[in-house]
Amino acid sequence: MVSRPKGGRDDRVCVAQIGAAHGLKGKVRLRSFTQEPTDFATYGPLETEDGTRHLDIEEARFTKDHFVVSFEGVDDRNAAEALRNVNLYVAREKLPAVAEDDTFYHADLVGLSAVTRDKSAFGEVIAVQNFGAGDILEIRRGDGSVLMLPFTESAVPEIDLASGTIVVDPPADSPESEKAPN
To answer: How far apart are CA 127 and CA 131, in angstroms?
Structure first.
C-alpha cells in the first residue's frame, strides 16, 4: 500500500517498503515502488515515514521478486527486524517530473475527494494498491465502508489535482453504484 505519510505531509513520496530481515548481518528484504525498480537506490538517503531516521544504502541486489538491502548502521538481525514494514520516502523534488498528463504519483491521488459524474460526494481516496494486475484505488465512503475501484479510464474518467477531486464511475453491477451517494 502506498499512502501519504502520517500528518498529511505531501512533499515526500513513498518509494519502498522494508520487509523481513534477511540473514544475520542486518540485511532486509525490500519492495520498490518506483517505476524503474532500482531507482529507489539512486535518490540518496531514504527517510522513514515518521521522519526521525534517514537510511543510507550500502548495498542493494535483486533476488527473485524483491531486493536484499543493507543500510549503514544496521548491522545485525535484531536491528533489521526492527525495520520490518517501514515505508521509505524521498523528497518529491528528487524525483523526475511527471511529463504525461495521464501519469501520476500515487501520493498525488491519496487524499483526493471522489465524486460521481454528477458531482455527488462519493468518498476519499485512502490508498493505491497494486496486486499485480494494475493499480486499484481504495476509496473510503462516508459510511466508513471501503470500495476497491480499478484505476482505469472508464472507472476514473477525470482527475483534477488542482481542485483535489477525481470523478469515479463504479461498474453498473457494483453494489456501490446502487447506493445513494454519501
So the answer is: 13
Domain ranges in the chain are 12-94, 106-178
Which tens digits make up the pLDDT trace of 63-91? 988 999 999 999 999 999 999 999 999 99
Tens-digit pLDDT profile for residues 110-140: 899 999 999 999 999 998 887 777 889 999 9
What CATH fold (topology level) applies to the domain 106-178? Answer: SH3 type barrels. (2.30.30)
Environment class of residue 61 by beta-carbon count within 10 Å: exposed (0-12), middle (13-18) or buried (19+)? exposed
Q: What's the pTM value of the predicted model, to 2 decimals? A: 0.68
Give the fold, CATH level 3, of 12-94: Elongation Factor Tu (Ef-tu); domain 3 (2.40.30)
